[in-house]
Amino acid sequence: MSTATPQGVPASNPPTSANALPPSASHAAVGSAALLAFLAAAWFIRVVNPFQGVLVLSAMFVMAAVALAVVVVDVAWLKAHRRPSTGISWAHNQPSLARTAVKFVGLVGSLGFVGGLYWLLPEYKGDFYTTYYHMLATLVPVWLVLAVPYIYWVDRHMPMPFDGYWHLGQALLGRWQQVDRHELGQHLLGWLIKGFFFPLMFTYMCNDLARFMTWDVAHFSKPGFQPWFDAIYAMLYFIDVGLVTVGYLLSLRITDTHLRSAEPTMLGWVVALVCYQPFWSVIGTRYLAYETTFKWGAWLADHPVAYTLWGSTILVLTGIYVWATVIFGARFSNLTHRGIITNGPYRYTKHPAYIAKNLSWWLIAIPFMQTGWAEALRLCALLLLLNAVYWLRAKTEENHLSADPTYVAYKAWVQAHGIFRYLAFLVGSKVQATK
Predict the structure, then answer these.
(1) Residue 424 pLDDT > 90, yes or no?
(2) pTM exceeds 0.90, yes or no
(3) What is the torsion angle, in degrees rounded to the nearest 10, for the CA atoms of residue 208, residue 38, residue 111 and residue 144?
(4) Range of 130's domain?
(5) Is 283 within the bounds of a domain?
(6) CA-to-CA distance for 205 and 202, rounded, in angstroms?
């Protein structure tokens, strides 16, 4: 359940000084616990198969294990529920059944808003999302029952309890004079983001889990590096979508993983959405089709040492990309601000995931190795255009997050201490040496 941060509540922990790296909203232990729980749960599903191959229940078990690990570490150890950024003050105790009822109406309205879009849009009519709908049929009734005591409990300890659920509830009850339209708009945008990305990631996770459950270990007995590359590469992306799926679901004030704000600009939305299905199936095949059937594996098939080095580099870049997901813990979500992450790979650059992913695409697709210089140049230009899309994603995200002083301080710190600062220094030194 995501809500916008009320006015007057700090969005992130403030930096300790102008020259210090601001503390990260998520401790590395949270991401580590989530990763270990994911791997253990996936292994348990594969070995024990407690749900007799029922994919939806198996995926929900894995998600529950990750969510439990995150909550235990975040709340029991790190005491995330005591942070000012949660909007909760345990010294404040003003329960209200009326507010709880209004917020519950807002929650039901939020689900109805997303459900109405699923009913309306043809994209959600096919078989692709079947597992997602089965999951909703199991989860939503339980979720609604548990939501009532949770809303009541959290609301009574909120000094400023009029969040997005309250404003939507008031709007649905026809009390528009009490509605803050900005809060309402941000709340609906947050649910639109969840409604778009959560089914996509859950479906990907289910597909990857199905492949993992039927993985043939005999594949590793084949000679050479290729079997290991295929397995590790697939496993890294399985981890990525698994943790991302939990991130979209586990949006709670009690863990301080709630929504602070949603991307407010159309440009930010466009450059993000074009990178995902169903939009990428059009953009990627008709406009930015930089890939061919000639990949790096075929190029280096007769050169085992080069094959191993090239493939290992791809795995390292993909590993950095997944590390950037893991370090979020349960905070990952496109187009949103749910706390500023400053540790892990984000200590070295503001956009480690984008940089690593885009570099890996050059090594995987090798557009520069196609037959004929004109065709190679054309494919390289197309991949550069895709790189430019991610550059725009990075810039729109920076503009969005820059409303938070913590991000401004973090951005300044990275510019002064990050890895590209040192690379620029080295390049500058070599230029000076040649003069």
Answers:
(1) no
(2) yes
(3) 130
(4) 28-434
(5) yes
(6) 5
